[in-house]
Amino acid sequence: MTDYGASSYHRFLQGDQSALEELVRLYGDALVRFAYCFLSDSYAAEDVMEDTFATLIVKRKKFTEGAKFKTYLFSIARNKCIDVLRAKKRVFRLDNNVANVVKGDPESDVMLSERNKLIYLCMQQLSEEYREVLNLVYFEGFDIPEVSSILHKSRKQVYNLLARAKTHLKEILLKAGIQNENL
């Protein structure tokens, strides 16, 4: 599988400004959703996304061959979220204002989009750790080793966290009247 992010980042490091625009198009929305899971604040989530790309621009670190760029990028975003939380020293508030969780063709993706929005809204009732692991695995498509790297946890811890998160989410969905044999 080709890591388009890594190739775009390498091109950016060599001076191709259009490569940075490609990275923003590829990962911008996903980073905002990821940061929103942490912060429950859409404006702060957008700021984190911008700060993540600013870090890429300013630091211009060489990307390690063999690693996935997306994992590297989400690690930066996670650290930015933690910085925001430390600076504000605030308690998470649950916010029902979620827009465009999933984008796609309206005709073919309406059902999936609505289901994902509903699940995403129910996820806001979970703890930060649970929201974070569910978002990384199910919305962003990371595998367990990548999540382990992003969260700085062992694979076993990620598996356990994911299992507990799914159990709690299922309880919330059932309370909301959503029943599905695949939950």
Describe the protein's architecture and organization.
The chain is mainly α and 183 residues long. The chain has eight helices and no strands. It has helices at residues 4-13, 17-39, 42-59, 69-88, 106-123, 128-139, 144-151, 155-175. α2 runs antiparallel to α3 and α2 crosses α6 (128-139). The protein is globular, with a radius of gyration of 17 Å. 26% of the residues are buried.
Topology:
Blueprint: H1 4-13, H2 17-39, H3 42-59, H4 69-88, H5 106-123, H6 128-139, H7 144-151, H8 155-175
Helix pairs in contact: 1-2, 2-3, 2-4, 2-6, 3-4, 4-7, 6-8, 7-8
Give the gist of this structure:
Helices cover 71% and strands 0% of the residues.
Bulk shape:
globular
Count of individual helical segments: 8
Quick one: biggest sheet?
none
Please compute the radius of gyration using only Cα atoms.
17 Å
Helical residues, percent: over 70%
- Counting copies of identical and different chains, the oligomeric state is single chain
pLDDT below 50 for ≥5 consecutive residues: which ranges? 90-104
The secondary structure category is mainly alpha
**Terminal residue distance:** 29 Å
Quick check: average pLDDT?
77
Relevant terms:
183 residues; mainly alpha; 8 helices
